[in-house]
Amino acid sequence: MQGLLRSRRALVGAVGIVAVAIAGALILISALGSDGKQAAPTTPVSTGAAATAPAPPAWVPGAAATQKLFGGIPQTLNVLGDPKAPVTMVEFADLQCPFCGEYAIDALPAIVEEYVRPGKVKLVFTGLAFIGPDSETALRATYAAGLQGKLWNYLDLLYRNQGPENSGWVTDGLLRTVGESIPGLDADALMAGRSSAEVDDAIALSTQQARTARVDSTPTFFAGKTGGALEQVAVSSLTADAFRPTLDALTK
Amino acid sequence: MTAAQLRAAIALLALAGVAVTAYLVDARYSGTRLACTTGACETVQHSRYAKLAGIPVAVLGLGAYVSVFLSALSPRVEAAAIGAAIALAGLAFAVYLVVVQVAVIDAICQWCLASDGILFLLALACAERLRRVPEPPGEREP
Q1: Is B134 on the interface with A (CB under 8 A)?
Q2: How far apart, in whole angstroms, are the C-alpha atoms of residue B11 and residue B71?
Q3: How far is A83 from chain B (nearest CA, A)?
Q4: Fewer beta carbons below 10 Å: N end or C end of chain B?
């Protein structure tokens, strides 16, 4: 009996040590952030405005990268690229959706450089607002930027400063600062344009298109020959590699 | 509760864990939005804490639940030990992730909490199974 107890104690002790070792290793790896990916900042970085100054700084993280990515590419409302491009890819997205932000940051730059800038593909943004109130607030500003031909810059910069869902991160201050960070964009006109009839119409049209296409999650992509039927693009990950087979086949 | 009933309870709890984590894994790879009443599931699922050395935590959780389920199928002492080690390690890591959700990410994922609840019960059951080893001859399995 004594032997059995000793044996059981040894077993329990060994299990405890192994469990602690495994948990410790997992926590250590997690805390050190071995994948090196940092969470997106939820508020714009201050450039040192005085505490009493009400106006936020005219700069948010990622402004330079956004400007470089889209510079020189034609934009018309929600379309990026040559209007006569032979292939069209439509994205249904919600500004609060982290997957959409992941696509914009991880996949979009390569797609823009390889397919959009050379005039092979044009991209169409179709905004949805189903995650919560912040979605529509962000979407209205994004479409208002589209009225000035800067929708894609604005969209990209908002994703780079995306906050947690429905946390109230889409403040007027952020929307204005993002606008002021984009060269050539009139931030005052943007703020006023959010409640314009054109933006109302754009949101109504997007919602209708999502319903017709039976889109129930974001991001959802459709691609095809321009003017022809578009088919949903099934992607296994939100990287440029996942889109290349479809885009290569269509642009061949 | 007999040893066989305890193992059945462990198997059922592990299957519940498999269901929750399989849903999270499927949502992650298919790009589907999670059904979420706390409004922040995707914030948690896409935080840097949702991956461990590049592997989604949901995938690790799925593997752990499957392993515990398999351990419950065997009456052997080694199986009880392996199941308990995985469940207890998982519980400790889950407690850490709850702290991270509350204190760092500032967002709660209800699916993670569901998994945490299952894991808590699973760890209790596995610990009890281990406590009963070795069992007196009268309670041995046929």
Answers
A1: yes
A2: 8
A3: 29
A4: C
- A16 — contact with chain B (CB < 8 Å)? yes
Give A100's contacts in chain B (Cβ within 8 Å).
none
Element counts in chain A: helices (H) and strands (E): 10, 6
- The full set of domain ranges for chain A reads 1-32, 63-251
Three-state DSSP class for B41?
A: helix
Walking along chain A (252 residues) 10 residues at a time, the average pLDDT comes out as 60 91 92 49 32 42 84 90 94 94 93 95 94 93 93 94 90 91 87 91 92 89 93 89 95 90
Helix axes A133-146, A151-160, angle to 10 degrees: 140
Number of domains in chain B: 1
Is residue B114 assigned to a domain?
Answer: yes
Return the CATH number at B92.
Answer: 1.20.1440.130
For the domain spanning A63-251, the CATH number is 3.40.30.10
State which H helix or E strand residue B56 sits in. Answer: strand B55-56
pTM of the model: 0.52
ipTM, two decimals: 0.86
For B124, the domain range is 3-133
Nearest to A141 by CA among A99, A101, A195, A105: A195
A79-80 and A231-232: which strand pairing?
Answer: unpaired
Per-residue DSSP letter, A123:
E
